[in-house]
Amino acid sequence: MERIPILKMGDFLLVTIQVDLYDQLAENLESDLINTINKHNSKGVLIDISAVSIIDSFMGRILGNIAVMSKIMDAQTVVVGMQPAVAITLVELGLSLNGVISALNVEKGMDLLRAKMYNGDNEEQVYDNSNQ
Amino acid sequence: MTTATNKEELFIVKEQDVVPLRNRVKDYGVRIGMSILNQTKLITATSELVRNLLKYGGGGKVIIESVNNGRDNGVRVTFIDKGPGIKDVAMAMQDGYSTGKSLGLGLPGTKRLVNEFDIQTELGNGTTVTIIKWKNG
Amino acid sequence: MQNNLLGSLKEHQNKLLTIWSDLLQANGSTDGATEEEESKEFTALLLDALERSNGNANSHEFEKVHDLLIGISSSRGRRGFSPRENAQYLIAFKEAASKILSEIESDPSNLYSANLQLSTILDNMTILTFESYMKGREDVISRQIDEISEISTPVIRVWDGVVALPIIGTLDSSRTQVVMENLLQQIVDTGSSIAILDISGVPAVDSLVAQHLIKTVSATRLMGAECIISGIRPEIAQTVVHLGIDLTGIITKASLASALQTAFDMLQLTVVKRK
């Protein structure tokens, strides 16, 4: 069975999708990713889709699922490198991928993840202070 | 008057047939010099419709053709299944409607991606969907 | 035809050329040296074809002549001849050829059938010149359409990481596509995380235009960049609210300057005055 590799980089997971997805492959990615987050207690997931030439409603839904599922497991998902044609097509299709955070490229995505982690800690501190 | 110049038929019975189909449709788009954006829209529409064909029609036949209407070249893709058919086409074409576990924007969203969209369905006799994407459409 | 009357025109090539150029001069559709060359080549090729085709108007012998003629008429088009003058060019040839035919053949029925064939062949060619003229025009128009959509959506890099796109004129759906494509491609190419869409030059914003703007903003966000819409004039703000269009999810600014200021804030940049 074909699978998309998931790489662990410290607190983060890195997924680079190099092939065109079909439904089963996308569903496998969803469950693999959630299991890996759980296994490593990862804080962030970076999904690079710069090589993906189409995203239809099903794959869009999978991306949304991953974002929401990882969020409730306390990991932030960032989707990076979406092609302009893919973005325009998604908008025409009526999909706005609510809940999915995106960044232009891997570098900006990493910055975003780090910032989110840092801000996330801050928010908790603020919350704690107000409770005291 | 739309005339077809080049034609091929593919039988789609399982999910793994989807990727080769998308590639064939892309080839047709590339051959007439379609822009990346229009190719992406056409392939995405194909992907949506072939999912319906597999999920609701239990598989079927897909015909890909190069077409010309005198002013522009285009690609026509026809999806033919012998499934149960659609009960209420008008309702199925509304945003937000779905009987399956998708986002419910299959048909209307797909229609927005292409230039021409035609659906013929008969209860118990299957559904035929035809789409055309023009090169400059 | 027994004696290939049209073929025998070849023996009178020079005379034919003289009569033709006289006729052209008389109706004023001539411009000298280049034309003389073209006419000579055309006559030689056509008379050859006439001889070999043996009066058959559909003979493939004429293909070469057709190619040459398309070249000649597009060259004449560039030199400023109208399609009417191009047609006259061929009609004059027909007249000249017909004159010579009546000199070399006395039998009316032979003459009649030769003239008929000549007419068919040359009328076909006249139609061909019109078609190639039209095609040339259509090429020009489609190139201009491309150029207009190209120049009407310039993406400007206003700062490191900030691109701006001023939209001038109405925003319809095909134009929105071009705007989106250009903007998103520039965002990728420059790695800019903020895009400013300035609509000062858009005459009116109705619900359709607003929908196009919202689509552009959504697509930009999907890519991972933020999109600010600037140039919201008071009357645009009024119509937007009166039409019940919801722009609350979008960052809007009155001027390009304040949009740029917002962009700086987002990038955590400050502009300070030198002491």
Automatic annotation (TrEMBL), chain A:
Domain of life: Bacteria
Gene3D superfamilies: STAS domain
CDD domains: STAS_RsbR_RsbS_like
Domain STAS: 2-113
Pfam families: STAS
Cited SUPFAM superfamilies: SpoIIaa-like
InterPro entries membership: Bact_StressResp_Reg, STAS_dom, STAS_dom_sf
Protein name per Swiss-Prot or TrEMBL: STAS domain-containing protein
TrEMBL record, chain B:
Classification via SUPFAM superfamilies: ATPase domain of HSP90 chaperone/DNA topoisomerase II/histidine kinase (SSF55874)
Keyword flag Chaperone: no
One Pfam family cited in the UniProt record for this chain: HATPase_c
Lineage: Bacteria, Pseudomonadati, Bacteroidota, Flavobacteriia, Flavobacteriales
Domain of life of the source: Bacteria
Organism listed in the record: Flavobacterium chungbukense
Designated name of the protein: ATP-binding protein
GO MF annotation: an example: ATP binding
Nucleotide-binding keyword on record: yes
Domain Histidine kinase/HSP90-like ATPase: 37-137
Xref: InterPro entries: HATPase_C_sf, HATPase_dom
UniProt keyword terms in alphabetical order: ATP-binding, Nucleotide-binding
UniProtKB/TrEMBL annotation, chain C:
Cited SUPFAM superfamilies: SpoIIaa-like
PANTHER family, per database record: RSBT ANTAGONIST PROTEIN RSBS-RELATED (PTHR33745), RSBT CO-ANTAGONIST PROTEIN RSBRC (PTHR33745:SF3)
Residues in STAS domain copies: 152-267
Protein name (record): STAS domain-containing protein
Record keyword Heme present: no
Keyword entries, A-Z: Phosphoprotein
Source organism superkingdom: Bacteria
Taxonomic source organism: Flavobacterium chungbukense
InterPro entries listed in its UniProt record: Bact_StressResp_Reg, RsbRD_N_dom, STAS_dom, STAS_dom_sf
